[in-house]
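Supplementary Note 3. Input sequence used for the single-chain structure prediction.
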Amino acid sequence: MNSLFKRLPRNRLAATRRSSRRRLHTQPHSHPLLATFFRLCVEGPFPAALALLPDLASAGLRADPVSLTRLVKLCVRHGTASDGRLIHRHVAAHGALSPGGLVVSNSLVSMYVKFGLLDDALRLFDGMPERNVVTWTTVVSALANADGKKDEALRFLVAMRRDGVAPNAYTFSSVLGACGTPGVLAAMHASTVKVGLDSDVFVRSSLIDSYMKLGDLDGGRSVFDEMVTGDSVVWNSIIAGFAQSGDGAGAMELFMRMKGAGFSANQGALTSVLRACTGMVTLEVGRQVHAHVLKYEKDLILHNALLDMYCKCGSLQDADALFRRMPQRDVISWSTMISGLAQNGRSTEALSVFDLMKSEGVAPTCITLVGVLFACSHAGLVEDGWYYFKSMEKLFGIRPEKEHHNCMVDLLGRAGKLDEALKFIHEMSLDPDSVIWRTLLGACRMHKNANLAAYAAREILKLEPDDQGARILLSNTYADLRQWTDAEKSWKAMRDRGMKKEPGRSWIELEKQVHVFIAGDLSHPCSDSIVQELNRLIGRISALGYVPQTEFVLQDLPIEQKEDLLKYHSEKLAIAFGTMHAMEGKPIRIMKNLRICGDCHAFAKLVSKSEGKVVIIRDPVRFHHFQDGACSCGDYW
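The predicted structure, written as discrete structure tokens, is reproduced below.
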């Protein structure tokens, strides 16, 4: 046949090939059984098509490759692995009309991969007399996505090239995720450049993902910036990468650039940006993202992320409005709302939402119960907390885990029941971890119990000898009690280990920019104006009874120096900056890295009264909503 083709003129050669292809597709269907088989493979149902295989074998008929590959696809959608093996045995015994055997074999390899039967796929692969780029790519991709097989995926890529098969864009897109070290990734990146595939949109997207997963944000950004033209896939990929790597500011900056470039964000990127807004407490950017979420009306994951963002940015009015409008709600929606209300000082409402959730037949999860116990803890509802803790297994079939035990220690500790908290820890069915002991240590500092604080700190250091937080809390407890010698011992132990106490930081968003303030640091460009505004505020609230509470300065200093240190706490600088730029009807929103001290708490309450402003401060644990001289925490934090 080949020699015949060589002798034919080019136009007749093409016509002959077309005629030959037509005969291959039409000839097998001349038999009624083959025609029926073809129709069932195309239209289904799958069981009827599968049932014809024995009849074909008995009649000595061989199905064509198109029918068999369609049957395999039907099997993946509607069949089982056993059905797939039956098809494989039929093909092995009776074959398919040639040419086309490779296409059928490739579809079988893909079928085994999709059923999660990687060993079967590899056995079939090993026995294939011929393989093409599709065969290799299917197996390389499967290995790259399988646990513990990433190195094998890379070895298969090398074998593929030795076999004379050139990887294509899909091959590289699949295998890039298997690069477990920066060096291997750099080598693979160089390979894509060498074969001219580095500009392919899917390869670039995979490169960005791979750099991000290895924590190399600069590498991912470099690949992105090298692009001549943007693409929505790559935009979404890099935004998700920055957000997942903890660089919320970078994710939001890229999101704004993406919008400016005229590209639309997909659900994954929008969810990533919402999480970044949550971490940075950038409500205004979050509201802009909300506008994009509207076109995904029924996307529950996206709506839950939006709800979480509003709760964690302290905008309960927006959260409540969204929660009521959601077309559907799952247990995550309910749990998010319960935790959000509790963290914002509205514990009674949180428990009411929990009751409503149960009345609607939604079963709580262990995470829901953490939110419920948190609500009890931060409102001093000791009896309610005990009730929910003791009945969670009986009522909901949920065994208390460490998070629930930690909530109980927090509940008892905040209420000043330190001995009861210690007894609870000793009687736990679980081994207490450093988190539980740290919770007790925090309560000891709150209630100035140095002996129990020292015991809790020792327990933490047994588990985590290099724990800096335990030493800081213990030294602060001694300083609270003016036991300066003991405090100095703790500080010296920290200095000897090269540890430094983390300074207080607060940040505030203004016109889509985040301004950061550090305790005692007046390096902000507007520092002179901020200090002037701070002095004005102190003058106003002093007339309302404000007196600096110098006991919150944990250093043995003269009173004037203590007042000076208090004056420039980071949240005071942020509040002053906020009042300078406050807009009518909008609250001042501040985020801080440490628990708010008592003096700053009193300062914020009185400023909210003197200026007629709502001030919202989020610390690592909860929100404080200051309005008309009162705080949502009820001075219980």
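The longest helix spans residues 10-26. The two ends are 88 Å apart (CA to CA).
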